[in-house]
Amino acid sequence: EQVMKVIRQDEREIGRQEGIATGMAAGQQQKLQEQVFRKLEKGKDVAAIAEELEEPLENIRRICEGLHEVQN
Questions:
Q1: Half-sphere exposure of 34 (CA within 13 A, CB side)
Q2: Most CB atoms closer than 10 Å: which of 24, 31, 40, 68?
Q3: Using one digit for the tens of pLDDT, what is the confidence trace for 5-45?
């Protein structure tokens, strides 16, 4: 019984850690999207944004496409 209790506690802790990691990744993505949006509003092009944010050009393109779809 004690062993099962410890196993359940470990599983809960693993789940909690996974949830935190998922939330942090989502937050980082949201921050990147906000930065891209602000730079687009300032008239910067995709390549300049990618360079300034030190992100792969393809990632910035995908974000821009997603922002464009939301605005339409």
A1: 6
A2: 40
A3: 999 999 999 999 999 999 999 999 999 999 999 999 999 99
Q: How far is CA 22 from the centre of its chain?
A: 9
How far apart are the C-alpha atoms of 26 and 32, rounded to whole Å? 10
Contact 36, 53 (CB under 8 A): yes
Residue 25 tokens, joined: 């990744």
Q: And the tokens for 7?
A: 């196993």
In contact, 33 and 60? CB cutoff 8 Å: no
| Element of type H or E holding 71 | helix 57-71
